[in-house]
Amino acid sequence: MPKFAANLSFLFAEQPFPERFARAAAAGFAGVEYLFPYAWPAAEIAGWLRDAGLQQVLFNLPPGDWAAGERGIACLPGREKEFAAGVEQALAYAEALGCRRVHCLAGLRPAGVDEARLTATYIANLRHAADRFAALGASVLIEPINSRIDMPGYWLDDVGRAFSLCAAVDRDNVRVQLDLYHAQIIQGDLARTIEANLERIGHIQIADNPGRHEPGSGEINYPFLFALLDRLGYAGWVGCEYQPMTTTEAGLAWLTK
Ligand SMILES: O=C(O)C(=O)[C@@H](O)CO
Ligand SMILES: [Mg+2]
């Protein structure tokens, strides 16, 4: 079986954030990920990780004004200075937390800006982030997210384009974060997509479809895909980014099966 990380923005959400670390460790997870660390001092989070014996696997770069509906700024012309400042903030957290992967949200498609300009801005910002994180030996990940159900208007909403943008950025430490829930909604054909692009996949996330609940609650054949990842020698993490149907612990039966 692959290595599973608990996404603390989704799992153990019955508890206040600081308490989720110990709950994840008690449930058998060795690693954790979550959307954003910035509301807490890095030293405090490092303490929660240390006390629980957990590895910090992933978090996101600052996304712009999340509360106002922004979902990243990497493709947005005119926001480059803010993007670069966010990279520096995330670098400090990654260093303090020993984290070697960050996800860079692309942003929502702005009205009236042509596609070539969005693509050029995105590639330039990603190169900047990749070069800064290379000093830490860390990877910058890009994730195709479905714009039909979960993130209407999201610019990077195509799996094939994520892999071709990853190639166009042309940095060894830029990889695709393949969230199999989003990929299933966007296009399906999950096994072939993994097999054809394995060397560009830096992280995997899971949830079943429909509903974004536990593996086994929907149409995706996760036992088949986990066996495929083992057979292909995938050495990365698999982040559990799903909404438990009842409680987190009750929903973890799929992990022990
Ligand atoms: O929504 C997802 O899927 C994610 O992985 C998030 O990091 C995007 O905000
Ligand atoms: Mg995801």
Automatic annotation (TrEMBL):
Protein's UniProt keywords contain Isomerase: yes
Annotated catalytic residues: E143 (proton donor/acceptor), E241 (proton donor/acceptor)
Domain of life of the source: Bacteria
Keyword Nuclease: no
One GO BP annotation of this record: glyoxylate metabolic process
Gene3D superfamilies xref list: Divalent-metal-dependent TIM barrel enzymes (3.20.20.150)
Gene Ontology terms, MF aspect: hydroxypyruvate isomerase activity
Family of this protein: Belongs to the hyi family.
Protein's name according to its UniProt entry: Hydroxypyruvate isomerase
Source species: Azonexus fungiphilus
